[in-house]
Amino acid sequence: MKQMLPIILFVLFVSNVEAQHYKDPKLPVDERVHDLLQRMSPEEKFMQLFMIPYEPGVDTAMYEQGVFGFQMGAEAQGGGAEAQLMSYNRSEHANKNIEKINNLQRWFIERNRLGIPVIIFGEALHGLVADGATVFPQSIALAATWNTPLMSSVADAIAVECAAAGIRQILSPVVNVATDVRWGRTEETYGEDPFLVSEMGVAYVSAFERRGIITTPKHFAANVGDGGRDSYPVHYNERYMREVIFPPFEACIKKGGSRSVMTAYNSYDGTPCSANSFLLYQILRKEWGFKGFVISDAGATGGANVLHYTAADYGDAAVHSMNGGQDVIFQTSIHHKNLFIPHFLDGQIDQPVIDAAVSRVLAQKFELGLFDNPYIETETLLDDKILIKHRELAKIAASEAVVLLKNEGSVLPLSKSIASVAVIGPDADTVRLGGYSGRGNNPVSIYDGIVNLVGGSVKVSYSKGCNRLSTAYVTVPADALLCNSGGKTQYGLLGDYYDNPGFEGKPAFSRIDKQIQFQWTLFSPDPEKLSYDFYSVRWTGKIKAPTTGHYNIGVDGNDGYCLYINGKLLIDNRIKRGRQTITAGFDFVEDHEYDICIEYSEPAGNAWFRLIWDAGVENNDDAAIEDAVALAAASDVAIVVVGIEEGEFRDRADLGLPGRQEELIHRVAATGKPVVVVLVGGSAITMNHWIDDVDAIIDVWYPGEQGGNAVAEVLFGDYNPAGRLPIIFPVSEGQLPLVYNHKPTGRGDDYTNLTGQALFPFGFGLSYTSFSYSKLKLSEQVIRIGDSVVVSVNITNTGKIPGDEVVQLYLHDELATVARPVKELKGFRRIHLLPGETQEVSFVIPSEMLAMYDASMKKTIEPGRFSVMIGASSKDIRQRTYLEVVE
Question: N- or C-end of the chain: fewer Cβ atoms within 10 A?
């Protein structure tokens, strides 16, 4: 028997090797998936449904059973030699990470029992977020080009750089429809129109998918709710979802080939999007036939219990999400796996549900070729010639995105023969690239771009003018606060936290808070010991000022607090109301310590609280504005570059320019010199307070690393702007939400003190030349269901210089069984014409383009008359005819 044992073991080994069908590249993917799935333990299956950023220094034992993949992250610090092998650095040039990513992949293939490779994923909204990668204009700027071939070229360039960096999946693009411009993430979108968003989204994802990189349209389904607030609950009816919110996602999947989708943080119709079976099963898989995998937004799965209160704990949230149609849990730490895994093992999630999710992930890993060719080849390295081409493309995109909003008296383009120009403003000599952006390759500011273009012949002077934000107060720093703990003096204040709003009983816990600067909007000060909406805090200790002086000290935060200094009640604001800033004067002596006590009561949650003062605040805006005004007065023309603050979880209640920028514009305009305002930002800006004071306005969005050069060429006429607004600009925030393609009103849309119309409509944009529209015609005046017609129009450049025109096709159903939008974009074409040149532009109108959802939510084409409109914006319709639909 002992002699037979080696033979038996050898036979078993050979049989096992032969049975490993998942390693055979000749077999179909579904067979390989099925074979591998049968070999996996429950823990290994769970880990294929768990994705995270790479965490420096984590013990590699945490990954013994594999993992879905990693996001590009920071260099590993500590954790041993193996941890260092598993590190890659976002701050390094993308080309230098190949060896590190290969080491990371090699570890999983060689050390894990089944050798399942990982997916390296990253952010690439308008360029890979990695040093050495090209930063193109922000998404909203790319949409403003109204040029899908250009979008395809930009996306392909980004995909090339992603592939060279080893990225196999991107968490992009954002194809949410920006229905409210107060939303801080409007900059990441392609605008307010579902057709425009769909066309741009498809152009983007197609380029990546062709190069074998998985795209992840997000955030399914809607990510902006009432008030333009990020991730606010959405209660839109099904008709609105199908008509406005769903189309871009459906297009990216069906036309663009997207193989992954990311859910939204918010709830839809009372159910978190990460666990919403209507969205993830009914719509995504059953109706659209989506075969890829669904991932949550970072932390959204666990968010079901802490934000939406629809799950008892993280494990319960995982049950809801998996049963609701989500596949992959995206978290921020590998340690979070212990919060979710229990119910994957105890049967609360049906095994077929788990196996289906794992199968979808494995199928994509096989299709990516990760099992057969897991390592990045060195020939994928980008050479300088490619990066130079990408930089040139970034400039083209920035140029095409510029929207000319006003040009009174044809002030623009500026003459290169002027003697002097003053470049003024907080965004003139800095480069802001927008959200989800790398640092770019030698980004060019607008000031530098102007100097580069005309600095040799025109005197170009710069003055900041003011800060983008005005700082009246700062948070009291830790080194100004002292307390005694354990017989030792420490920086900060001692906080006693009570489990009731009345400071009753003993504190639930005490701790030293280095600064009194908190935003407990989602959680309590300690979720394990306090509820988020019923507690109080008393901070005590000492405070000292850096210099002798009379300072204003107080609180920026929710009402319900008192401030004592040396036992004296300085501020009494116990009324529970809302956030405001209240300060009181106090005379401080340098380095003298004063007793301080702050009492804060929170009986309803959503707390915002900062201890502030004006000690050490250096606000030089007064002097800077005076300097800018003097510079403008001494120059032939003033270019004022101003911008807004926005971003993820940074929604705007006020759409005006922040800080003292509007004052800066007024003061510069008062000099009487021609004033050109350059707007930097990713969303709408109200300007009724200053628009009449300036001669010209251009919106350059976040124009990317070559933005400064592109903007300079527009200002001085080397490039004729033709960007168009992908969102409306309202006159006032009181008009919002406001979109061009709304349904008809029951009476009117005006206010007693304001029109219901936008300041600048959707599709708006001026040019340095002019265009005429003529000879609109249909190939047939009648269309039968199933057929198509062609509409054409002649466009003529009637000006004196070459230029682009964006021809826009809109349709309106004249009579329907349910209310239809007053106007819908259904086609657009950006064309270039020489002076006097005429070009015929045609659009195909298939009968499917005329489809609608009837009263029973059935998609149908109703016979009747449609208005066919072609123009230069949603408001500027130049030609119109009618098309009759018959059965």
Answer: N
| Tokens, residue 726 | 């992908």
Cα(398)–Cα(393) distance, rounded to whole angstroms?
9
**What's this model's pTM, rounded to 2 decimal places?**
0.94
DSSP assignments along 123-188, one per residue: --SSS-SSTTS--PPPHHHHHHTT-HHHHHHHHHHHHHHHHHTT--EE---B------TTSTTGGG
- Provide the b/e sequence for 831-867 (b: ≥16 CB within 10 Å): bebeeeeebebebebebebbebeeeeeeeebbeeebb
Nearest to 807 by CA among 790, 825, 786, 781: 825
Decide if pLDDT at 60 tops 90: no
pLDDT greater than 50 at residue 530: yes
d(CA 534, CA 423): 52
pLDDT value at 444 more than 90: yes
Q: What is the SS3 assignment for 305? A: helix
Query: Could you please report the per-residue DSSP string of 88-107?
Result: --TTS-GGGGHHHHHHHHHH
Which tokens belong to 732? 């006032």
Alpha-carbon distance of 203 to 837, in angstroms, equals: 29
For 23-57, write each residue's pLDDT tens digit.
999 999 999 999 999 999 999 999 999 999 877 67
How many Å apart are CA 381 and CA 254, to the nearest integer? 32
Buried b (16+ CB within 10 A) or exposed e, 568-597: eebbebeeeeeeeebbeebebeeeeebebb
**DSSP helix/strand/coil, 559:** coil
Backbone angles phi, psi at 225, to 5 degrees: -120, -155
Here the tokens at position 677 are 């305002």
* DSSP per-residue letters across 18-52: HT-GGG-TTS-HHHHHHHHHHH--HHHHHHTTEEE
Q: Please answer whether residues 123 and 139 qualify as being in contact, where contact means their C-beta atoms are separated by less than 8 angstroms.
A: no
Antiparallel, parallel or unpaired: β 838-846 and 788-797: antiparallel
- The three-class DSSP label of residue 633 is helix
Please state the separation of Cα 263 from the chain's center in Å.
14
Pairing of strands 459-463, 675-680: unpaired
CB 806 within 8 A of CB 766: no
CB 832 within 8 A of CB 806: no
Q: Give the model confidence (pLDDT) of 816-869 as tens digits.
A: 999 999 999 999 999 999 999 999 999 999 999 999 999 999 999 999 999 999
Res 306: pLDDT: 75
Question: Which residues, in sequence order, are CB contacts of 212 under 8 Å at separation 6+?
Answer: 163, 168, 368, 369
Q: What's the rounded Cα separation, in Å, for the pair 34 and 362?
A: 9
Residues 6+ apart with CB under 8 A from 870: 773, 776, 791, 793, 807, 808, 809, 810, 877, 878, 879, 880
Edge-to-edge order in the sheet of strand 788-797: 771-778, 788-797, 838-846
Evaluate whether 405 touches 761 at the Cβ level (below 8 Å). Answer: no
